[in-house]
Write a structure and sequence with these properties.
single chain, alpha/beta, 8 strands, binds adenosine-5'-diphosphate, binds zinc ion
Length: 216
């Protein structure tokens, strides 16, 4: 099974992908995470994308497509969850090719439908465990014990530099202008399943599970 989680920044893609990875053994392929890793390692790609990411603009199609291709090769036969990719029509077309070359196909494009104003609150409250990467939110998903990661017990957390209100607005504009237009591309193929992304994390999870379990 290969699925895309599609939605604006803060829609809950990463949260749901991490859950599917834990409960179904699928593999989360997040281009955002790959790009942040490239930055952290100081690689030439990391250097190249730094300013673009900090401004909330989209990195070139060629870079993200190459990253996804590499990861697909190391997950032959895995159930892939595309998180934050594709983000343009060109990337959607490139993904078709990457999958076809490997004898794979898309099963579902799950659209997380959310209210834009809520996204700013979600993103400005987002933080992750610095050690294991578990995702939290100041109000909606706090740690059980204040300051301690539920998963690994670490007391160190981090926030993304691009998770500020101004950059979020640019990221939402990028979504509207370049990413939302890929919905009709997949609608024409009958692949889009809409999920209410404003529901609680568990309710969104249940809606996604129902879609995956209904698959032949
Ligand atoms: P995305 O990967 O789409 O950018 P995330 O999964 O990182 O979004 O979610 C953004 C923030 O909102 C995180 O802090 C997360 O804990 C929180 N969040 C995710 N899903 C929900 C939800 N259904 N209701 C409330 N908060 C949520
Ligand atoms: P979010 O969780 O808010 O959806 P991501 O972590 O997916 O954000 O992406 C963070 C940043 O990385 C984006 O603002 C963009 O600069 C870059 N990026 C990630 N994925 C892509 C992609 N598929 N195409 C272009 N740029 C990307
Ligand atoms: Zn942790």
């Amino acid at each position: 099974m290969n699925i895309i989680l599609l939605g604006p920044p803060g829609a809950g893609k990463g949260t749901q992908a991490a859950r599917l990875q834990a409960t179904r053994g699928m593999i989360q392929l997040s281009t955002g995470d790959m790009l942040r890793e490239a930055r952290a390692s100081g690689s030439p790609i990391g250097e190249k994308v730094k300013a673009i990411m900090d401004a909330g603009e989209l990195v070139s199609d060629a870079i993200v497509t190459a990253l996804i291709g590499e990861r697909l090769d190391s997950c032959a036969g895995c159930g892939a969850i595309f998180d934050g990719f594709p983000r343009t029509i060109a990337q959607a077309e490139a993904l078709d090719l990457l999958l076809a070359e490997r004898g794979r196909h898309l099963d579902h494009v799950i659209e997380l439908v959310v209210d834009e104003e809520a996204l700013v609150t979600r993103i400005t409250g987002r933080f992750t465990c610095a050690k294991c990467g578990a995702g939290y939110h100041d109000s909606f998903r706090p740690t059980k014990v204040a300051g301690v990661c539920d998963v690994c017990g670490s007391t160190e957390f981090k926030r993304r530099p691009d998770d500020n209100e101004q950059t979020v607005r640019t990221r939402m504009e990028e979504y509207r202008a370049k990413t939302a237009p890929i919905l009709p591309f997949y609608q024409a193929r009958g692949l889009v399943r809409r999920v209410d992304g404003m529901a609680s994390v568990d309710e969104v999870a249940a809606q996604i599970d129902a879609i995956l379990d209904a698959s032949p």
